[in-house]
Amino acid sequence: MTTRSYDDALTARELYRFFRAGEEETLALRGVSLRVERGETVAVVGPSGAGKSTLLSCLAGLDEPSGGEVRVGGVRISHRPETERARLRARHIGVLLQTRNLLAHLSVRDNIRLAHGAVRGRPHTAAEDLLDQVGLTGRAHALPRELSGGELARAGLAVAAANSPEVLLADEPTGELDGGTERLILRMLRERAALGCAVLIVTHSAEAVRVADRVIALDDGRVRDAEG
Fold first, then answer.
1. HEC sequence for 15-48
2. pTM of the entire structure?
């Protein structure tokens, strides 16, 4: 890991997440604590069912932990009403999900513009600049259903980065992509970190692990190992 001085952008302390189905209760997260610092890229790995996607949802404020707390830049985003979490997420967090974060009825450009305009009173990256950065200038008017898997991944990343978030969370951003597109997505995530963003990637990809500053391994809802 590069020896740099970081400031925590994202912290999670003792996160628990319970799910109940009838009489059965599942404990998806068991006291997970972590930090991701500004300018840092962290990979979260582990087998299927380890709690990785549940963790990312709690970090993003898309789901509420049953216990513990999440802070972004020192501001608590957990245990707030859903509308407050959404407001804080729009200001501070970019999210790239496995299902991608695009509205089906909007073009690529309009999806970026919608995310770009979600928060007023702060600088934004222009939609055209983001389209150029992800190599989709020629696909600006395409609908999500008209894009290939690699184009969807790049468009989703442009949407996630539209408001220059402090934290960028990516859930399997390179799954089912060819090697060249995977390297492109990872390079763009690293570029966001170089601009001061805290980047966390949930992944099974050996390439994503290779480019990360640190690796956190989850198993059965617990942190089993943290490298770097």
1. EEEEEEECCEEEEEEEEEEEEEECCCEEEEECCC
2. 0.88
